Amino acid sequence: MSVLANSAIPSTTPSNNTNSVTAISVIARVDYNLRFTKQAVLVVGDDASEYSQLASQYLVSLSNASSNSKANAQHYNVAFVAASSKINDIQMRCRLVEQLFANTLFDPEQSLAVSVINFAKQQSEAISIVVDHAHALSLQVKYELCQLVSLAKKHKLTINVVLFGLSDAAEQLTVNKSLFKNKIAIIEAGTGQVLSMDDKKFTQHKVTGSLSLWQKFSVAATLLVILAACIWLYLLIVDDANQAPISTVHQTVFDSESKSGIESINEAEQLNPDALTGRKLIKKQKEGSEQSSSNQPIFASANQATNEDITAALFTSSIVENKKVIAANTSDILHALSAKTADAKIASSPADSESVKPNYYLIQAEQFEQGYVVQIAGFSDEILLDKFMLQHKEQGLHTYQRQLSGKSFSVVTSKVYQNKSEAKQAMAALPAELQARKPWLKGISSITAEINTFNR
After folding, report:
1. Is-contact 44 17, C-beta < 8 A?
2. 127-160 burial, b if ≥16 CB within 10 A, otherwise e?
3. pLDDT at 328
């Protein structure tokens, strides 16, 4: 690039020996690593103003290099994206590919290392990808960009990737050092020095920040729950131990009372011999009532009870169980059977079953084969989805389900438009609240493929 015309490149020296390192332009250092190491470059700073200014300078250097025809500079196809935690991996891939290759169909779920390489083979231009706020990128996208540079080197393609962000991005790389070894160079924004993944600046920060406030709160809450469970189990054990002697005392009292009752009955029989005859009579009547299917009580007798019978019944009431067995009437049985049949008919009625509605997107795909929609949002929580649809019901939005990372994911889109130009006009006319979600266009063929994959 033209930025190296008047710059001298010194040898790289470890960052802890700053006195022996010659001052060098950060942009020149970036260009040097891109030319000779063929790796992705990550420029890290302590604040956003520091690294964002370098990102702007690098874009200007790319513009100057492309316009400097006298130096026979190579023309670069540049894509610039400011990363954010609100942008997911699919949206990030779409923005990069759409800037590099306009009006080209692609799969947003496919890795950048595959899709960009395939399109780059069809063109002769060099490609440069610049990402600001790289600490907001996911680990997956960082790996795809580094893998993209590595594959471009094997296919003899010129693809440069330069990332600008906070030191958190470099710390994430050091934690996963095995994935990014010999694939990315880390440059300090303040000094222009090349930093190693084993630099003390990253390792010391990881040691001091062992547990965050939320993690400490979670550990404390878990310990409290465990302590409460232990106390509850202890109280249950103590309660069971206290109830055991009481049950034994109750059984002893019951046995003593039963024994005294039997002794009192025996004494009464000795004083009144007719009481024994009364007990035998009641026992015979009870046995006869159990064998009979009539509805008469077990103490029913054809003859009137005598004084001796009443006295015997009073003495034996503590040991004779007075149970009444009432047989069901024929009308009660028929009523129960008819009620059960009616309930079964109601349960089998198809009146409450919902009819299956055909999918809106599949119907529109038959009418508009080249149709497009405006994809607005995606939700994995059904409650949030319902709330969002209720807030924007006047927009006439539609949803479908697809698989994302092995889970069900609901996607919210506009209606299907006949072509891409109509979809662009509709996207521009969306309210400011929906525009803030950074919607993008999606072909109806991609949606039908996702729906069919989800329904398998």
Report:
1. no
2. bbbbbbbbbbbeeebbbbbbbbbbbbeeeebbbb
3. 62
Task: Please give the Cα distance from 384 to 418 (Å, whole number).
Answer: 30
The rounded distance, in Å, linking the Cα atoms of 206 and 217 is 20
Chain centre to alpha carbon of residue 348:
37
Tokens encoding 377: 């949002």
If you ran DSSP here, which 8-state letter would residue 399 be given? E
pLDDT per residue as tens digits for the range 293-330: 444 444 444 456 666 666 666 655 544 444 455 666 66
Pairwise CA distance, residues 332 & 309, whole Å: 37
Question: Which of 288, 443, 424 is CA-nearest to residue 371?
Answer: 443
* Residue 96 Cα to chain centre, angstroms: 27
pTM exceeds 0.85: no
3-state secondary structure 218-280: HHHHHHHHHHHHHHHHHHHHHHHHHHHHHHHHHHHHHHHHHHHHHHHHHHHHHHCCHHHHHHH
β-pairing, 372-379 vs 440-443, is antiparallel
Q: Are 159 and 152 in contact (CB under 8 A)?
A: yes
Q: Which two tokens stand for residue 254?
A: 């019951």
> Length of the chain in residues, anyone?
456
Q: Which residue ranges of the chain lie beneath pLDDT 50?
A: 1-23, 69-73, 206-209, 246-247, 249-250, 253-254, 265, 268, 271, 275, 293-302, 318-323, 342, 344-357
How far apart CA 26 and CA 21 sit, in angstroms, is 13
Could you tell me the two tokens for 188?
A: 């300090």
Q: What is the per-residue DSSP string for 144-157?
A: HHHHHHHHHHHTT-
Cβ neighbour number for residue 245 with a 10 Å cutoff:
9
